[in-house]
Write a structure and sequence with these properties.
Elements (H helix, E strand, L loop, with lengths): L2 H11 L3 H8 L3 H9 L7 H11 L9 H17 L26 H4 L15 H10 L3 H17 L5 H11 L4 E6 L4 H13 L3 E6 L26 H10 L4 E5 L5 H8 L4 E5 L10 H5 L12
Parallel strand pairs: 1-2, 1-3, 3-4
Helix pairs in contact: 1-4, 2-3, 2-4, 8-9, 11-12
Bound molecules: iron/sulfur cluster.
The site of iron/sulfur cluster (SF4) has 11 residues, from helix 6.
Length: 301
């Protein structure tokens, strides 16, 4: 690859020299000299490291051990919000809209760099921003927003999610808590309810199969019966918890799409405790961490 192409990509992604150094593992001093032209003939391995940082899709060509390392680096950067993401590979395609995940600077967060050309902050419709900010003035929304901010700040990296959920429930003054559970995770939901009762809440649960309706009766193809005849009924779960006037609902392992319906129909705020993933022990992010290795099918054409 031409050095000029790499410089263009660096500019396009909005990386500073320090960011590129961090991402590529090339010492900043070395990188500065290369970029300023002081180093006329950089080592091949150095150029390769820079290229891989700028074109993450190239990591797929690395031998397994390196690919695994690259995956961890990518994950770490994403966690701390400083680095590129795999979606940068879409830069090579013409028909995509660049957005925050394609950003190399996250200057809206760090305020120490430049904004990329496509930055959503600098191109923001100010009316839309004002409209969003106005929502926080509504007392019920303000309570949720401030409670969420305090729970995060006061317990950052100290509390588990169930503990944070309890703190959040306390802060918004919730008493009656709905537990919308997958029938397959009733054991886990029992523990949730037990903990909530211990903490003085009034939990009320409803399982997804409640009402015992058949999938085929709403038009699902017969093959769907292979994993169970009766349908999950998230609309009923939401409506039942609405009828019980819950102050907060906790979602425990509803299936993809069933959770969407629950969010849509629930009156009270919903927080998700468990995101179902039958393959990964309800830890869906593992597939993303391993998308360059064991789950490369996710990125294959
Ligand atoms: S708002 Fe702008 S600076 Fe922030 S992540 Fe999105 S593109 Fe990057």
């Amino acid at each position: 690859m031409k050095w000029e192409d790499m410089k263009n990509r660096k500019r396009e992604l909005g990386y500073s020299n320090a960011q590129l150094s961090e991402l590529s593992g090339v010492p900043l001093g070395t990188l500065n000299k290369i970029l300023s032209g002081d180093t006329k003939a950089p080592r091949y391995a150095t150029l390769q490291a820079i290229e891989k940082a700028l074109f993450p899709e190239k990591r797929n060509e690395a031998p397994p051990r390196q690919a695994a390392d690259a995956g961890r680096i990518s994950e770490g950067k994403a966690t701390y919000g400083k680095g590129p993401t795999e979606s940068m590979t879409i830069h090579d395609k013409k028909d995509v809209t660049l957005s925050c995940v394609d950003c190399g600077t996250q200057n809206c967060l760090f305020q120490n760099s430049t904004y990329p050309d496509f930055c959503l902050s600098t191109h923001l419709d100010q009316d839309l921003l004002a409209e969003a900010m106005k929502e926080y003035e509504k007392p019920e929304i303000k309570k949720i927003a401030l409670s969420a901010a305090e729970v995060e700040a006061d317990n950052y990296c100290k509390m588990t999610r169930i503990e944070e959920t309890i703190e959040f429930a306390k802060k918004i003054g919730a008493k009656k808590i709905g537990v919308a559970t997958c029938a397959g995770l009733v054991k886990e939901s029992r523990m949730v309810v037990r903990i909530l009762r211990k903490r003085g809440f009034e939990p009320i649960s409803i399982a997804c199969k409640c009402g015992t309706q058949k999938k085929v009766d709403i038009g699902a193809p017969e093959r769907c019966e292979a994993v169970g005849v009766y349908m999950c009924n998230p609309i009923l779960q939401a409506k039942y918890l609405n009828s019980q006037h819950t102050d907060l609902n906790i979602l425990v392992g509803l299936c993809v799409g069933h959770d969407s319906m629950f969010y849509k129909y629930a009156d009270a705020p919903v927080t998700t405790l468990i995101a179902k993933d039958r393959v990964l022990g309800h830890n869906p992010v593992a597939a993303l961490y391993q998308a360059e290795q064991y789950y490369h099918r996710l990125l294959d054409d």
